[in-house]
Amino acid sequence: MTELSRFLSSRFSGLKAYVPGEQPKDTAYIKLNTNESPYPPAPQVIEAISRGEIEKLRLYGDPECTELRKTLAEYCSVTPEHLMMGNGSDEILSFVFMAYCDKNTGVSYPDISYGFYSVYADLYGISSEEIPLKENFAIDPEDYRNRGRTIVLANPNAPTGLCLTVEDIEKIVASNPDNVVIIDEAYIDFGGQSCIPLVRKYDNLLVVQTYSKSRSLAGARLGYAVGNPALIHDLNRLRFSVNPYNVSRLTMLAGKAAIEAQPYYDNKNAEIILTREYASAKLKELGFLLTDSRANFILAKYPGMGGSALYEGLKARGILVRHFNKPRISDFVRITIGTKEQMDAMILSLEEMLGI
Ligand code: PMP
Question: Which of 170, 116, 166, 160 has its CA nearest to residue 139?
């Protein structure tokens, strides 16, 4: 990385940007490092991107994503006024931090969670509080009751994969009536229970979901917020102040077709869950310790071997996983669930590394 220029605003001189997982240019690796789906988008999604639609790219898209929101609203059992679409859920989260937190209204999130939360807090000069997970990496819902700050929780949490129940979350939302509670459900389709049904009951609950993981569209960049229409109105005010055409025409089409092809994705997600349970059992047989993940990844460690040795050993064998050099989780690696064949190759490599 080159030095910062002398022109950058001093506001950002200390900013530590988010570091995404490696995206190798060659396809030689078995890529289990950024929680993408191993399956292609549904055939209907591919057909939706026709030549005619590509030709229409000379025109701006619909800044309201009207057709997509109509279809998605029906799927989520809400109205289109409960929905805002974003360029990935990262963009939605960025608007959320901008909208509902500042120096006075601080934000709380777990000490081990999605790395972008602290980056957005820094970027927007927000006072943030990291609440330690319990020893077993679970979130203690009691820690978030009557907190009096904006709360951001990933459910399932990343990279632990552990879930809170909807009942636990409802108690958190109900006990913080004057603050927004954001539930980031990026991995909800792999075994958790969504809080979307609660958005009609609580005006301070915002649920964020993505097409990146369970709908095989990470590269299309599509996420959404579900919440009370007033919250959605706030977020739209910011979106229209930054980039009203934030979702491309082709992505909108893909997003609508993906909802219409939901049975395809239900099948693939069930397959991913089965593969997760299969790989988890295999890893346990080898002596690995794992969290009880309800996501499309596993967080695993091998007693006596550090996480970076696991990461390096697998990389040398053509398998990319994610290692976080952070307190408490540095002994672990996060392994995305791929196809069964990919998981078998990963397990074979681990056996080789461990001399089993
Ligand atoms: N939330 C969590 C918890 C994530 O792990 C990710 C993926 N990195 C995101 C949000 C953002 O996903 P996207 O921007 O691809 O929708």
Answer: 160
Q: How confident is the model at residue 2 (pLDDT cuts 50, 70, 90)?
A: confident
* Distance in Å, CA 34 to ligand 1 centroid: 9
pLDDT of residue 1: 58
Q: From the CB of 220, is ligand 1 less than 6 Å away?
A: no
**What is the whole-number distance in angstroms between the Cα of residue 89 and the centre of ligand 1?**
6
CA of 267 to the centre of ligand 1 (A): 22
Query: What is the tens place of the pLDDT at every residue in 152-193?
Result: 999 999 999 999 999 999 999 999 999 999 999 999 999 999
Mutation to probe ligand 1, out of 184, 188, 293, 322 (largest number of atoms < 8 A from CB): 184
Whether pTM > 0.85 for this model: the answer is yes
Tokens 């240019």 sit on residue: 25
Strand partners, 355: none
Closest atom of ligand 1 relative to the 158 alpha carbon:
3
280 secondary structure, DSSP code: H
Of 82, 148, 144, give the one whose Cα is nearest residue 113: 144
CB of 222 within 8 A of CB of 255?
yes
| Contact status, residue 276 vs residue 341, Cβ threshold 8 Å | no
Domains of the chain: 17-40+263-354 (3.90.1150.10), 43-260 (3.40.640.10)
